[in-house]
Amino acid sequence: MAFLSVLFGAAGAHWLEALKDLDLKNTYETAVRFQMFNSLGLMIIGLIINLKLTPSKLLSCSPFFILLGTIIFCGSLYIISLSSLKWFGAVAPVGGVLLLAGRLIMGIAILNERGRRNNTE
């Protein structure tokens, strides 16, 4: 996903030069930026899960929400900016809610783990 955000960012810099609509360019740039941030977040979660011998089910499920949220959120922004289908803006909040849910689940899993460690000491 990080590879694609770099590819989309580079391609968009050339493809969108002809666009006169600054809002569409900004929308595309927002999609690329969110995709990269979420890609990095997924890599970090992957490292945490790999370093932990037995990751909790809760922690293991958070990347799926973040991945799906990124695809829906950024995908809808890409569609809006490249096709001018403004009604796709109604889809973006669904992706945003999934992104928030993924982060909330991750936070709860980390707090649960911290509480479990404190109880065993």
Strand and helix layout:
Layout: H1 2-15, H2 22-51, H3 57-83, H4 92-120
Q: Could you walk me through the main structural features you see in this protein, from its secondary elements to its overall organization?
A:
By secondary structure, the chain is mainly alpha-helical. It has one domain. It contains four helices and no strands. The longest helix is centred in the N-terminal third of the chain and has 30 residues. The termini are far apart. The model has no long low-confidence stretch (mean pLDDT 86).
In brief:
With 121 residues, the chain is mainly alpha-helical.
The average pLDDT is 86
Main sheet makeup:
none
Span between N and C termini? 39 Å
Strand-pairing-aware structural class: mainly alpha
**Could you estimate the helical fraction of the residues in percent?**
over 70%
Helical segment tally?
4
Bulk shape: elongated
Total strands: the figure is 0
Detail the poorly predicted runs. Answer: none
Radius of gyration: 17 Å
